[in-house]
Design a protein that fits this description.
Shape of chain A: flat
Oligomer: homotrimer
Number of helices of chain A: 5
Largest sheet of chain A: 11 strands, parallel
Strand order of the largest sheet of chain A: 8-11-14-17-20-25-28-31-34-37-39
Largest interface: A-C, 75 and 79 residues
Number of strands of chain A: 40
Helix content of chain A: 10-25%
CATH class of the largest domain in chain A: Mainly Beta
CATH superfamily of the largest domain in chain A: Hexapeptide repeat proteins
Distance between the termini of chain A: 72 Å
Strand content of chain A: 25-35%
């Protein structure tokens, strides 16, 4: 059976261990969105916001939770975790491009580099001295790999990635275009007449199964290494300073900045555009909502926020003006409380 | 007449339909800033902050609004929209580099790609299988174009741009260096032992006359497409998540992040470093001021804000400390109001 | 003496003018972190957060302040500015890779460009017409240099840098991978049916000893130039709009955005993710803390903030809800004050 022709619902149910409600002979060839899917498409429902499309979907089948199965008018593949089940089925129906072993004629490979025969090295790439490229690694076009870099098996550098010298990637790491790993950390020392650059002599170690988004930057350590542990997922345009350590399976959304020497725990979720200052410790299982600022260590799992949602601009200007006088307001209330013999003893 | 020698004010007035106050034979060869312009320069005034330079300008002529013409000591080209009039004149006096048709010897073009004879393909570029490059397209040096990409006529990819497979650009789209279009969206499904990658199988469709800034990233859709409609202008370092749709003629300033599946209306203005969470609907003609967070849908045109301008740091620390106790302050005021038989019935 | 074998503490003390407490014959070969350093490593202590590691360090010697010398159980190199002293010693012990003069066979150099014989031009680079590359300049692999660019002596473009046409770099400028200098500023003029692009005709001038981080973008001026003065240090993913001017020795952390035509003074310190709107004047010696928004000019040296640290999410939601009613709270307090004949005359 090849996935080019798709698969029957019965095959899918068996392969992925799902309960099927519907005809096992029905064939799906691709995935589709609940509201647009055609009769050869497999869809999924894992977000309550999209439940309204379930009744009218034209999909062949929908991957969904047990409690929604009765509302599904088409075939249902039932899973306690429909998003993960869908992800696995979709990857099987739509496998990534196969690796095409070989080194493009325009690639510039240092003679001391070791490149696995099963690796694919694209056009206009550079592989530096003593670099080691593992089995089935794909080095996309325009990618620059510095001296002494090591890439374990099955890494995919999509295109135009830069790995500075000495960076080490574990197995199955995916790096998207424009990412820069191993540039100098921002180490400067103030002196009488300006700044002295502090040499950035550490490395970057990326463990297995990490994914790194487009135009994300991860700086090398000042002395020791910057470390991204196993299974971490980084979205686009994230900035990770020198000597940061990110614990396994933490996921970080786009535009987050993490300053130097901060340690993030395992299984944290950091939403978009959060800023975390340097030299902090963030515990395991911490969730930080979007546009928040973290300026001191977080020692307990939990959800943390400081983002303020928009108001109509005129109302917001009044709020900001009032905020500037909030100290005075507290004082006024204190005066009033004293008049009533309220206050410290009674209220606080 | 060639613009190499510039043009007379009379020629400009006729060509751009402007009223001229001054000598039509005066010749200008280039544009200049109001406060620095020399006697062969054309300048403009479209921002009240710069009116103070009008009296002393040495420019040959100034493009400005009717109401300012009487204050202009040099020649005036009068327009109700001096910025747009200036933009058109400047583009005519300083045309972009002409397209130089041809494919550089170092370009790697897949044999199945179709490249218009009038297109210019720069050095160290890659054009993937079945890509279609339209008439007069410029593909700048170091640019990587994936399989099946289509570029309509007159696109300009400046340098070191990455278009992943299947991305489609309309006519006259400009993409600046380092931009990455079509990387995988941030789709991950939580599972017992970490994350499962959700395949990102959709595309990116960019309509005509869009401009995309340096190092901006636009992710491909998870299933359907990410869509940037006609005439949208995107500044640098913007992040656009999977399945976002941006309505025509919306302009977005630098460092904005828009999370997945959000729809932005037409003619919106989004200022710098705004963050917009996923799965929202933003109406047409919405203005969002800088550093604001949008975390719920906006259904009506208007101006929205949540950015807080800086205070002196000590004062700000007091404000933040007070803010943490604001809940308690409301309670105290409620107690006081009760003493006075004020409160709910009377004030709110 | 070569640094390959390291140096004795005596040699270091003499060369860098430091007081030595300990055996001048002790040899160090590399630098190390205070808490991990081995017996051939030189370490330093310049941050009170790390004083706890001093007592147990295994380093051969520590660079530190006079007041800490007595607590140091190993050799001490004493300096009033231990970070700067360490930076200089580390750069001497670990010098950067030497320049390897020559032009890689894959480089595409316009015949009209002038390249110093001592310069190193890496693979897959482009050097445009009339560009001038100074003595000992390193042009890293994949770097694109536009027409008419000038690079003064000892610049290092690390890899995959883009310099648009006409950009000028002073001596010893370091530019990290993915940086884009000279892309068009975000100049658009609103017109009846969309936007007109305002041609961006100015340049970018970077003075001596500037360092520019990975994926940072600096736009060219609209008419005049964008200017980065001597000794400015820019971290990663910073966005600098057209016609910005940054004063000498100012340091800017990652993810900062500065909108067009703003002038920043000398010796300013701008922390991460700050946003500064356009057309402002920021005085010399201004410090802006992380995630702050600057929306009006700052005329006096000092420290400025508007970032709000995170709270537990439930508490934060209550604070935000209260904030939306703060205007009403002020009114209530005013009513209460009137009851007491307090208020304007007495309290404000």
């Amino acid at each position: 059976m090849t996935t080019a022709d798709g698969a029957t619902l019965g095959q899918i149910a068996v392969r992925f261990g799902l309960e099927l409600k519907g005809d096992p002979a029905t064939r799906v060839t691709h995935v589709g969105e609940l509201k647009d899917a055609g009769p050869a498409a497999l869809s999924f429902l894992a977000d309550a916001r999209y439940e309204r499309y379930l009744a009218d979907t034209k999909a062949a089948a929908v991957v969904l939770e047990p409690k929604l199965a009765s509302q599904c008018q088409v075939a249902a593949l039932i899973s306690d975790n429909p998003r993960a089940a869908y992800a696995r089925i979709a990857a099987w129906l739509h496998p990534p491009e196969p690796v095409r072993p070989g080194i493009h004629a325009s690639a510039v490979i240092d003679p001391s580099a070791i490149v696995a025969e099963s690796a694919q090295i694209g056009p206009h790439t550079v592989v530096g001295a003593h670099a080691v490229i593992g089995e089935r690694v794909v080095v996309g076009s325009g990618t620059q790999i510095g001296n002494g870099v090591t890439l374990a098996e099955d890494c995919r550098l999509m295109a135009r990635v830069t790995l500075y010298g000495g960076v080490r990637l574990g197995a199955r790491v995916i790096v998207h275009a424009g990412a820069v790993i191993g540039a100098d950390g921002f180490g400067i020392a103030q002196d009488r007449d300006g700044w002295v650059k502090v040499p950035q002599l550490g490395g970057v170690v990326i463990h297995d199964d990490v994914e790194i988004g487009a135009n994300t930057t991860i700086d090398r350590g000042a002395i020791g290494d910057t470390v991204i542990e196993r299974g971490v997922k980084l979205d686009n345009q994230i900035q990770i300073g020198h000597n940061v350590r990110i614990g396994e399976h933490t996921a970080i959304a786009a535009c987050v900045g993490i300053s130097g020497s901060t340690t993030i725990g395992k299984r944290c979720l950091i939403a978009g555009a959060v800023g975390i200052v340097g030299h902090l410790q963030i515990a395991d299982d911490v969730v930080i909502t979007g546009l928040s600022m973290v300026s001191s260590s977080i020692t307990r799992a939990g959800v943390y926020s400081s983002g303020v949602p928009v108001s109509e601009a005129g109302a917001w200007r009044r709020i900001v003006a009032r905020l500037r006088n909030i100290d005075e307001l507290f004082d006024k209330v204190r005066v009033l409380e004293r008049r009533h013999k309220l206050g410290d003893s009674e209220n606080s």
